[in-house]
Design brief:
two-stranded antiparallel ribbon, binds iron/sulfur cluster, Uracil-DNA Glycosylase, subunit E
Length: 210
């Protein structure tokens, strides 16, 4: 088979059928931006095909890149635990990321997360939009600024609009909260616990909405 050529966006790689299976298979060959070059594999979303609630994170991390699944590393385990406390069944939700390849830089032997650029976020948005159209959730919960800015624009600030349910043309209602990795980065145990409780409160509010 000839090598797949790189393009400027994921749009050129979307399949004709937009069901989750076809999308996930097609995303494996995406060359819509440079990020596929240093990643192990595409990490597509997963969950119930007709979930009422969709969680969107930033990008896969080191463990997600290796496993090929979203939110299976430390931040994912925290998300799982907080979902349980908020009464949300992860198996009944759909979980994905705004960007489907792991962007990283080396530090010694470690691969350190690097924030995707707005160009990379925009290049990957067709996959996220197609997932939203396929799942048709009643609410999208953006976890962190990258996910929020992908859907709500680059000027969106989670710090200012956290927890506010927003109506955006072409999408189901959207609410933004922090990414669970930011809770893990809290400086003290007290800060971490306070941030965790605020996050759970945001999830409870989201669950009530649906
Ligand atoms: S990050 Fe998104 S647009 Fe870029 S290559 Fe990966 S799947 Fe394609």
């Amino acid at each position: 088979m000839p090598p797949v050529q790189q393009r400027n966006s994921a749009l050129d790689f979307l399949p004709q059928r937009h069901d989750l299976h076809s999308l996930g298979e097609a995303a494996k060959d995406c060359r819509g931006c440079d990020l596929y070059r240093n990643a192990t594999q595409t990490v597509f979303g997963e969950g119930r095909p007709s979930s009422v609630i969709m969680f969107v994170g930033e990008q896969p991390g080191d463990q997600e890149d290796m496993a090929g699944q979203p939110f299976v590393g430390p931040a994912g385990r925290l998300l799982d635990a907080c979902m349980v406390e908020a009464g949300i069944d992860r198996k009944a939700a759909y979980v994905t990321n705004a960007v489907k390849h792991f962007k990283w830089e080396p530090r010694g032997k470690r691969r350190i997360h690097k924030k995707p650029s707005m160009r990379e976020i925009a290049a990957c948005r067709p996959w996220l939009t197609a997932e939203i159209e396929a799942v048709k959730p009643r609410l999208i919960v953006c976890l962190g600024s990258t996910a929020a800015q992908s859907l709500l624009g680059p000027s969106f600030r989670v710090t200012k609009n956290r927890g506010r349910i927003m109506d955006v043309a072409g999408y189901p209602p959207i609410v933004a909260t922090v990414h669970p990795s930011s809770i893990l980065r809290a400086q003290t145990d007290d800060d971490r616990e306070r941030e965790r409780q605020l996050f759970i409160a945001d999830l409870v509010a989201a669950a009530r909405h649906v």
